[in-house]
Amino acid sequence: MSSIGTGYDLSVTTFSPDGRVFQIEYAAKAVDNSGTVVGIKCKDGVVLGVEKLIASKMMLPGSNRRIHAVHRHSGMAVAGLAADGRQIVARAKSEATNYESVYGEPIPVKELADRVASYVHLCTLYWWLRPFGCGVILGGYDRDGPQLYMVEPSGVSHRYFGTSIGKGRQAAKTEIEKLKLSEMTCRQGVIEVAKIIYGVHDEAKDKAFELEMSWVCDESNRQHQKVPDDLLEEAKAAAKAALEEMDAD
Amino acid sequence: MIVDSSSPAPTKNSLLLSSEADLQRTQTPYVTGTSVIAIKYKDGILIAADMGGSYGSTLRYKNVERIKPVGKHSLIGASGEISDFQEILRYLDELMLNDSMWDDGNSLGPKEVHNYLTRVMYNRRNKFNPLWNSLILGGVKNGQKYLGTVNMIGVHYEDNHVATGFGNHLARPILREEWNENLTFEEGVKLLEKCMRVLLYRDRSAVNKLQIAKITDEGFTISQPYSLKTQWKFKAFENPTVGAEGSW
């Protein structure tokens, strides 16, 4: 599916004859090569999960957070170039606090997604800036209930019931489509996300990974937080058991 | 460039300030709260303050909450300019938000919050633009009780019992006599009510509607507003115009 854009791919301000901007497509490749990130919207909240590929055994477990709180009521999981992701998170935090200080209420998730998308898009308009090499899944809970958005390096953003980015996104999307999300609580959703991530992890290509999950739901008081340790362990155990079942077949 | 028309011929002070857009100078307070008193007791901290907001000598606002929680571990009580207290609450909200977004199992305790407030108050004072408040910061974290105070000049200290404003003159002597480190909740409340009653009799800006807040390792509670019983049937108050006919 990849095509060589010889000559038309040197700058993000150049279109190719068939109307593509190659630099943006290359930026998306950076996202495609990173560990899988999954987000689902359940009936009472949003669950985010990240397959954190471990580069070295010397790294402390729990380090290298890939999911960040943007405000009390929302969080963001990042896939792709980690440093680019930090920049986007910092900008999102700043937009959220600015909105609250001007309008007196927490930023609606739709507005936050809009602002993040605009910012990412901004960096695709000038030749002296490069596009962000990361995609972001943003989950939050506001007056209109729980919502899930995804922002791509092109600056495009959509609202989703469930989505995934990164290496195993195709397989993950298939699994997500099988779930009955509107009937699921976040407690159940956490288990499902763990199963999906363990399922799409490629044992052959990548060695070890660490599962990082967060949620915003009624149970967490509509605050974004890491999934509590006991539930996380339960989810990991269920996921490993499901894998063994599949292998046994 | 805005010129302050009420100032006299340029003195050294205004020459230094007038060239910048920043023409803040020492303010005067408008709506103020009076004393706050606080003590350590067996399980944590107790803070008491009335609900009055005075506009000069008028007791104008009677539903002002001058004690607020800060995060999970602390309570802040403020006297002085109420709008500056609201601004301080905004700073603290921002501080606690950034702290909670780390999501790393840690949270700022009362000692840290007190230190932060001290830096804010002192730095504002050095810019001749103080937040016109005296603050009391109390809390419990990991079983450790902490009670401190900081005022608009940046003077700060911790103690087993602290007070602001008139409380320093009227309440602290009582506390020095009667405080001990094993007060139960009921004894603590009784002691604070005794001090608040003295303040109610003697402080012209006190209002008879108060809240008492407590904070322990388990969390905080701020009581519903209530009033103290007062005693005015003294013989000397009866027939007040005897000896001075025609006065009122």
From TrEMBL, chain A:
SUPFAM superfamilies: N-terminal nucleophile aminohydrolases (Ntn hydrolases)
One annotated Gene Ontology cellular component of this protein: nucleus
UniProt keyword annotations, A-Z: Cytoplasm, Nucleus, Proteasome
Signal peptide: none
Domain Proteasome alpha-type subunits: from-to ranges: 8-30
InterPro entries: Ntn_hydrolases_N, Proteasome_alpha, Proteasome_alpha-type, Proteasome_asu_N, Proteasome_sua/b
Main location: cytoplasm
Annotated GO biological process: ubiquitin-dependent protein catabolic process
Gene3D superfamilies linked to this entry: Glutamine Phosphoribosylpyrophosphate, subunit 1, domain 1 (3.60.20.10)
Protein location: Cytoplasm; Nucleus
Functional summary from the UniProt entry: The proteasome is a multicatalytic proteinase complex which is characterized by its ability to cleave peptides with Arg, Phe, Tyr, Leu, and Glu adjacent to the leaving group at neutral or slightly basic pH. The proteasome has an ATP-dependent proteolytic activity.
Family: Belongs to the peptidase T1A family.
Quaternary structure and interacting proteins, as annotated: The 20S proteasome core is composed of 28 subunits that are arranged in four stacked rings, resulting in a barrel-shaped structure. The two end rings are each formed by seven alpha subunits, and the two central rings are each formed by seven beta subunits.
Protein name: Proteasome subunit alpha type
UniProt organism field: Coffea arabica
Gene giving rise to this polypeptide: LOC113696781
TrEMBL record, chain B:
Keyword Cytoplasm: yes
Domain of life: Eukaryota
Alphabetical list of CDD domains matching this protein: proteasome_beta_type_4
InterPro entries, per database record: Ntn_hydrolases_N, Proteasome_alpha, Proteasome_beta4, Proteasome_bsu_CS, Proteasome_sua/b, Proteasome_suB-type
Family as reported in the entry's similarity comment: Belongs to the peptidase T1B family.
Cross-referenced Pfam families: Proteasome
Primary location recorded for the protein, binned into one broad class: cytoplasm
Name this polypeptide is given: Proteasome subunit beta
UniProt-listed PANTHER family: PROTEASOME SUBUNIT ALPHA/BETA
